[in-house]
Amino acid sequence: MTATAPGALRLVAVHTKFQLLETIRIPAAVIGNAVFPALALFFFVVPQAEVAGNRLWATMSVAGLAFFSVCSASMFTHGLGVAEDRESPFDPFVRALPAGPVPRFVGRILVGLVMALFGMVPLLLVAAFFTSAGVPAPRLLAGVGMLLVGAVPFILLGIGLGYALTAKAAIAIVQVILFPLAFAGGLFMPPSLFPAWMDTVSLATPTRAGRDLLVDALGVEQAHGSSWFVLLGWTVVFAALAVWAYRRDEGRRFR
Question: Residue 1: is its pLDDT beyond 60?
Answer without folding.
Answer: no
